[in-house]
Each structure stands twice: as structure tokens, then as C-alpha cells.
Amino acid sequence: MLHLDTSRPANITDDYSLEVNAKGISALTAAAHRISPASTISIPYLPNQDNEARLATARAVRKIGFEPMPHISARRVTSLAELQWFVEHAVAEAGVERCLVIAGDPATPMGPFANSSLLIETGVFERSGIKVIGVGGHPEGHPIMSAADRWEVLKRKCQDIERRGMTPLIFTQFAFDAGIVLTWLEALRERGIEHRVRVGVPGPAGVAVLARYAAMCGVGACASMLSKYGISIGRLFGTAGPEHFVDRLAADLTEVHGKVSLHFFPFGGIAQSVGWVEQYRSRSELAC
What we know:
This protein is of the alpha/beta class.
């Protein structure tokens, strides 16, 4: 009898997630009918948007019909009381069931939390009714942690989240080289970490825009890396989409890599990312 692996989507773009901030709600609303209902929409923790703006964004995402997933930046949270206030209000006002915890970019914490592990350890999330906690994965490495430390910290976070009755979900930084991501996924599974991974994918955008975001996020964007993404240095004034990257993932992902889906960073706009997914699916269906 043939046994199908039902954990793997028929198309790699099935069950994709998107990122949107307060300024992107109108674009998300306009594209909502083209996105699967109950899709995860992550809400980044931007320094120029306060907690009220993040809550308003979460409420709007829920109203449109999607699952809001606010990011919480440990080093930007000023107190335990602030953390508790935000999470409790997000659950009560926007039906939030999932959060993504990150360390954040300030060199010096603004409060008692120097890293995302300390956020998890407060117990605020499970007490407030959060069911899923997202944590970061770093296929291209981390600016301050060694490889051994990265794996140890990631495994410990996932174990702590499970002990608290919640489900871990791993989000990777976006990358340009699918080979690096595939190798990292293999290493992840070899270490016994079997939780779902959302692989970060830069949505279609101008090449200069992609390079700028890569520099801001510490993602490798040298000429050889860009070439693997299908970008030529001679095209710096053009646009680029993730066709080569996603094609490589679709071709080479196996059961060994575990449960994997895509998370789009819409650097060129939400409509452009949604349109790219539609075109990619149409192309895939024609090829079958």
C-alpha cells in the first residue's frame, strides 16, 4: 500500500505566512481575498511603533480573517509588567494565540530581558493563553554566538516551550542561498529538533532594496551569494524574485528536512509577494 506523507504540502507555497506592520494593513486588506483564510501574519516589533500600534495591527489582522503573530523584542521590553500587559491585551483584544520572541537589536537591554529565553521563562505566555511560540533560526550563523551555542540555545528554548504546554515554531532569517538553508535543516533534524520550520524568503523587490535589507539584517549578500539567488551584479537597478531559491527548496526538500513552509518578507510590497506566489503556483501546475 502506498503511504503518502500528508505533513508535506502539495506545493511548497501552501500554508505560507507573511509579515506586515501597521503601515501595511491597507495593502493586506486589499490582497486578503487572494490569501488563504487563517494564514499566519507576523507583526514585526519596530522601534518607531509603540505597543498600542502593534495591538491595533493585531486587531486588524484578526478582523481581516488571519492569525496575528506579534513579535516581541526582548531587549526593547522595559519591564515584566509591560510584557504582561501587551500579551494579555493581545489575547483579549485580537485573539492572539501565537507570538514570535526575538532578542532584538539594541546592544543594551531597555529592561530586564537580555534575550528571548528570559521572555519565555517568565511564564507570561502560557498563563495568558498563548499556544504557539516562534523562535529564531539562523542558517547563516549568528553575529555573537558560536555554532555550538546556537544549537544548544535553540534546543533549550524548544524544550522549555514544550514543557510549558505550548508548541515551538522556528522562523529562519531570510537567505539567498537555498543550499545553506537545506544544510542547516539537515543539521537541525540530526540534533533531534523536529518542530516545524518557516523558512524566510525575501519577496520580489528591487535588487538594491534586497541588498539594503540584507545588510540591515546581517544576511550574506556578496556577489556569489546573490548569483545563487539569480541576481547579477549588473542588475542592481532591476528587480528580483525568489524563483531560483524556492525552486531549489522545492526540488531538494525531503522527509529528512522535516516539516517546512515558507515565510515571506514583503520587501517589495504585499501585493507583489502575493502575486508572485500566484504566478509560482500557476507555473507549478502547468509543469505537472
